[in-house]
Amino acid sequence: MCIFCGLLLITFLTTPVQAATFSYDNTGQPGTLDTNVSCTDPDGGAGAAVANIERTFNVDTHFIINDLDVGFNVTHTWRGDVELTLISPLGTSVILLIPDTTGTGSEDNWDLALDDAAAGPADNDIADTTAAPNFAADRSGQPDNPLSAFNNENAFGTWTIRMCDKYPTSDNGTYNFSQLLFDGNPIADLAINKVSSSATYTPGLVMTYTLTVTNNGPENASGITVADNLPSGLTLNSPVTCSAIGSASCGGTATYGVTGGTGFSDTAASVDAGPGNSLTYTVEVLPSTNMADY
After folding, report:
1. Global pTM?
2. What are the residue ranges spanned by the domains of the chain?
3. Which CATH class is domain 11-17+188-293?
4. What DSSP designation does 202 have?
5. pLDDT tens per residue, the chain (294 residues)?
6. Residue 30: is it exposed, middle or buried by C-beta count within 10 angstroms (0-12/13-18/19+)?
7. Which of 52, 81, 22 is nearest to 161 (CA)?
């Protein structure tokens, strides 16, 4: 009989790697918002800014974006003059702050976290102070266009913020610093190799197979689930054991599954990217002597 008769489920291959928070700062690169950085189109149409301040963030980790907030700190009288755009490595461009053209937006300075989930708009009709605490520790506000446009992109690469001044001859200011704060799932290419001690089995005689988990990267994987359901007629002869090599760890218990069980799962395993890191699960199974079980 074939040990692989029936359906074997390796559920960890479809389980997302555990989500994490990633923060990137742009500091020490101030810039002046004046007549040299004027906007020609505050609504982001065909005539984008003819001159602007640009600052970049190098995101050095591969992960899929679940949520993104942007911290922004600018000293500027009549802050409604400022246009802020964020551009992803894939070219997605979102205008987060649209310059005011109605005579409002007269408060001074920006210091906030632009957050889709904020309770109110970015411009709350109250002047900001640019001194610490900054960003979300100061206040949060909704951007003029949603940051969710970046969700499900791979964040890896160079991000750009672009700023310009709609009315540079009236009021000027200074870009101070900014931050990108992501929630995302690291990208990991997990693989599994199943090896049986025999291609056939004899009812009533114990046999063994192993599951070896590796990670082809590019990122480390944690919080993954390794699970296997046995075909009909097979039960565990003993609890499953796990051994880790290199930068890998089993889920924190000595064994998985129970004698007589029909499968097992390890719900908190981790394997770093690269060769030499792996998990091996050793599974002893007992084929039933009752042919009706098959």
Report:
1. 0.76
2. 11-17+188-293, 20-186
3. mainly beta
4. -
5. 444 433 333 334 434 567 889 999 999 999 988 777 777 544 444 444 456 899 999 999 999 999 999 999 999 999 999 999 999 999 999 999 998 877 666 899 999 999 999 999 999 999 999 999 999 999 999 999 999 999 999 999 999 999 988 887 778 899 999 999 999 999 999 999 999 988 888 899 999 999 999 999 999 998 888 999 999 999 999 999 999 999 999 998 889 999 999 999 998 999 999 999 999 999 999 999 998 888
6. middle
7. 52
